[in-house]
């Protein structure tokens, strides 16, 4: 029988309202008790933390990653219960810190507490177990009957059961009537990502995201240049940013001259950036910019933290970041 480590971190799924609003309350045993097919495997529970996922931070990512790494040889699969608000950040972070892992790490949660009548927790927990028993490698999110590559998930809805969507990458699998239906094309691709499992926990969290909007005062970039090691710019459309009256392009050059690592992404969810299309984008192409391709912000953040934590030269940082890891981006040509 397969052995599974169930790691509980808190979130809505374990929350209860005792008069001041929902807050994490139940322990991991409550969750395991709600799984129907426990006789198919051996499950050990670990209450690693019990926090609202809005309080999740890189220090917590490290605790989860190190818990999995230290128990790697003792279990065949790992399930992590997690709050939904920051789940996609955590799944991406674990992908990079546990790169090459050849066992399934299935992250799940719920939009409604396990104590509520119409909770989605029961379905999500049972689905997570079904996926954990499969021959999968890497980190995934299991939610509302869908399995999503850990670097491609984005929370799109605040209350509905189908909260997560796979962005710029197909769903890995879906469950219908208790039966898993894999996307065989994706599974064949996933097999090519197997490699040497080399967990690394180096993170530089000193980064900032700047979302452009019409009228943004460029002075924010002066502050960023003095206080941060990396800046992620959410540009307009396919990669546009102002270069006339409010000259953001000039400020980006100044950041680069201060050895701040700059990543350019887009505010659009799908299709990514391509700076070669418009004049405004081409102005950036000869600068020392990192291009995020079609990555989502939830993956860009931890990947940049990992890059800055592991490497000191811009060349190495750029090479690492622009290398697709677990299909987090299309190849940049």
Q: Count of DSSP helices?
A: 10
The CATH superfamily of the largest domain is known as L-asparaginase, N-terminal domain
Rough outline:
globular
H/E series? EEEHEHEHEHEEEEEEHEHEHEHEHH
Give the class from helix and strand content and strand pairing: alpha/beta
Q: Can you count the beta strands?
A: 16
**Order of strands in the sheet with most strands:** 4-1-5-6-7-8-11-12
Mean pLDDT: 92
The helix fraction, in percent, is 25-40%
CATH class type of the largest domain: Alpha Beta
The major pleated sheet works out as:
8 strands, mixed
- Low-confidence segments, given as residue ranges, are none
The percentage of residues in β strands lies in: 15-25%
Q: What is the CA-based Rg, rounded? A: 20 Å
In the CATH scheme, what's the topology name of the largest domain?
Rossmann fold
Q: How many distinct folded domains?
A: 2
- Measured between the Cα atoms of the first and last residue, the distance is 45 Å
Could you walk me through the main structural features you see in this protein, from its secondary elements to its overall organization?
By secondary structure, the chain is α/β, with parallel strands linked by helices. It is 29% helix and 24% strand. The strands form four sheets. Strands 4-1-5-6-7-8-11-12 form an eight-stranded mixed beta sheet, sandwiched between helices. Strands 13-14-15-16 form a four-stranded parallel beta sheet, sandwiched between helices. The protein has a two-stranded antiparallel ribbon with strand order 2-3. A hairpin with an 8-residue loop joins strand 9 (153-155) and strand 10.
